[in-house]
Amino acid sequence: MAGKVENYWGVWAPVWSALASFVFLLPVINNYIPAGLGQWLNTFAEKLTTYFSPYLHVTISEYGQENFRRSKFYLAVEAYLSHACSRRARKLRADLGKDAKTLQVTVDDHQEVTDSFSGATLWWRPSKTTSARNVISWYPGEDERRYYSLIFHRRYRDLVLDQYLPYVLAEGRAVTVRNRQRRLFTNNASGGGGGGYGRGKGVWSHVPFEHPATFDTLAMDPDEKEAIIDDLTAFRESKEYYAKVGKAWKRGYLLYGPPGTGKSTMIAAIANFLDYDVYDLELTAVKSNTDLRKLYIETTGKSIIVIEDIDCSIDLTGKRNKTDDKKKSSNVGKDDDDKVKLPGETDKDETSKVTLSGLLNFIDGLWSACGGERIIIFTTNHKEKLDPALIRRGRMDVHIEMSYCRFEAFKVLAKNYLGVKEHQLFGEIQSLLEETDMSPADVAENLMPMSKRKKRDPNACLVDLIDALNKAKEEAAEAKAREETEAKAAKEKEEAEARMMTKQGKVISQSHC
Ligand SMILES: Nc1ncnc2c1ncn2[C@@H]1O[C@H](COP(=O)(O)OP(=O)(O)OP(=O)(O)O)[C@@H](O)[C@H]1O
Ligand SMILES: [Mg+2]
């Protein structure tokens, strides 16, 4: 939006100059004339300025009606100007951002910057007023009030109000999102951090999210990876589509597979790819369906809600053991812990009472009025243990199997860990990986050059990996042989027992005869 710098005083310069002198002198004149006349002169000066000036001013103040909060529009303008116009300003203000890591540069006070939009030239001027009162203020922004003035010709009034300002708001927000420090939230208060769960503060505590995993570092089949990236991209760009078909803008992913195959790493890669916050939901720390609902409502848009190891978190299979059956089944669909407690009465049962139906509601987000895109991810080592209702399409839309390391995935790890794309040992490794189930975590561990010898020579890492694969292969063969022997022994025992039973049966029937 770079614009030609022009002076908005233009041909009206002499008139403005005279007016400005008059307005400037007014406070001095006011000291020597009666109060009534002074007030009249002030009003007159204002009217004169408004009447002659072809320019309009829009003021955007830092603090709105509520003194505690900085105006969102002001922040958006600040972000927009620092991004779009700060290059053209001569005086800048530099500060550390919210996370105290990134440098933020904004246009300094009283520095006018120009912008242009659909042929219109606009001037932005950041200013501040300082309170004359000799009172120390408790509230931020009371003593010093910053504001932006936007000045433009009145013929652009509609353009500015209807198009330019909404554009500045949207652009400013986008810049803020790009610059923000993403966060990892957790509902497990013992994990440290800010507001504890259920203590009247926020229900989530958070730390900066700094996981370095990306899709480039994720070792898996390239075609599957591409399909996931496509799916995520389509989701991110489908706001209108979801609105059109009347669906909440959310998508569920089920990541399943053996330990160490990259499920948690994949979540970090997705978060980094989409630039979303992550809410790591510890289900065992949630006491009731009501609390689960509160947690959902307090999540923001552009976020990933994660429940790791869902099969271990809670009994969600719907299959209850007989003794507990009666008690637990009365829980399904109800929030029995919603009932009013007597004063002083505490929760005797500290265990989670989240039910399957509570979780299903959570996923469906039926009671949620919050907009904005959300991704829900479950991880599990045992997909077969999960209730089909929990993972049906529509809830968990995409099922992704994270499998043992095969050759294509190995090549990604070799490139990332050793910087090696081709090697004479690759052939041997390929055939070993096809025959042996080794998790990417174990392969990665073998490739890590953690000793001086390995650091000097990537070859040593590959040789170590071959040794580990051969060992794993032998162990797998031994385990298989053991299993076969045990199965054979069990079968023989069963047959012997059956023979014995038949024999006994015959004896009994003969004695009856
Ligand atoms: N597919 C992969 N690509 C790259 N690195 C991987 C992959 N899988 C595992 N790793 C490495 O192994 C470590 C453990 O992986 P991760 O925690 O993602 O496994 P997981 O599937 O979540 O295991 P679990 O089921 O035990 O939670 C990671 O820190 C990562 O360095
Ligand atoms: Mg994991």
Automatic annotation (TrEMBL):
Cofactor: Mg(2+)
UniProt entry keywords in alphabetical sequence: ATP-binding, Magnesium, Membrane, Nucleotide-binding, Transmembrane, Transmembrane helix
TM region positions: 7-29
Domain AAA+ ATPase: 249-406
Entry's Gene Ontology BP terms: response to stress
Reaction(s) the record says it catalyses: ATP + H2O = ADP + phosphate + H(+)
Highest taxon listed in the record's lineage: Eukaryota
Region called Disordered, residue ranges: 320-349, 476-513
Family annotation (Pfam families): AAA, AAA_assoc, AAA_lid_At3g28540
Gene Ontology MF, one: ATP binding
Amino acid composition bias (Basic and acidic residues), ranges on this chain: 476-500
Similarity comment text for this entry: Belongs to the AAA ATPase family. BCS1 subfamily.
Protein's name according to its UniProt entry: AAA+ ATPase domain-containing protein
Organism of origin: Leersia perrieri
